[in-house]
Amino acid sequence: MTEAPIDIPRAHFHDNRARRYDDTIRRVIPAYDSLHLMSGLLLKELLPADARLLVVGCGTGTEMAAFLADNPGWTAVGCDPSEAMLAVAAERLDEAGVGARAELHPCTVECLPAEATFDAATILLVMHFLPDDGAKQSLLTATAGRLKAAAPLILADMHGDPETEHHRRLLAAWAGWQARHGIPPEEIEKGLAHVHRDIHRVPLERMIALLESAGFTDIEHFFHALIFGGWTARRAAGEGA
Ligand SMILES: C[S@@+](CC[C@H](N)C(=O)[O-])C[C@H]1O[C@@H](n2cnc3c(N)ncnc32)[C@H](O)[C@@H]1O
């Protein structure tokens, strides 16, 4: 099924959590703005001036607005199942003066037309919410299926092997990082419980295997901040449009 894009000017509903997201994310995710900036700069190196971008899990639209503001010839389609996040994204895109070049869909990538029409895709801080029971694979495969042959993907995710001492150390350092940025101890504890309960981290080798199975190649690491990593990849040539 293809979900219709939401009407950007008519999106008024705001959930408090979506608003809070923008207030706290930079104090919770190390180098959040740098990750977005580096992703945009890498895309700029890789894409033509009239590129069409797919932003999977666009959330409150921060990366989408920045990509479009920096590249006046680009257009972008964002998808996210959270209408509250999309309502904030719609406002942000308008405020950045790029709303006319943006389309927002209240759904997962699987709901978008299954046509290889995009020049690039990003999946930033999204896939770790999905269990490794076929859901991660489905997200990557559906994204690959909407990319032109050899089109780049930028993926960033919380990752690692939760069973290792190294990962436990990184998580402890992450808690310390949040404390240094003013997150109250009870919120840090709640966040860690949420990670243990709901965030499906996989080791690097598994991340690469998932990307390869979805038809991506040329997988390169470009970002690392404690338990957060970022990779570039390309849809294998010969597949897609
Ligand atoms: C941590 S936010 C990241 C948002 C944005 N990419 C950023 O960097 O700020 C994760 C977003 O992924 C969305 N999400 C969760 N599951 C998804 C899925 N299967 N497909 C697309 N988006 C999804 C959530 O609704 C949420 O808005």
Automatic annotation (TrEMBL):
Database matches in CDD domains: AdoMet_MTases (cd02440)
Gene Ontology biological-process annotations: methylation
Entries under InterPro entries matching the protein: Methyltransf_12, SAM-dependent_MTases_sf
GO molecular function, one term: methyltransferase activity
One Pfam family in the UniProt entry: Methyltransf_12
Presence of keyword Methyltransferase: yes
Domain of life: Bacteria
Key words, A-Z: Methyltransferase, Transferase
Stretches assigned to the Methyltransferase type domain: 54-148
Protein name from the UniProt record: tRNA (Cmo5U34)-methyltransferase
Lineage of source species: Bacteria, Pseudomonadati, Pseudomonadota, Alphaproteobacteria, Rhodospirillales
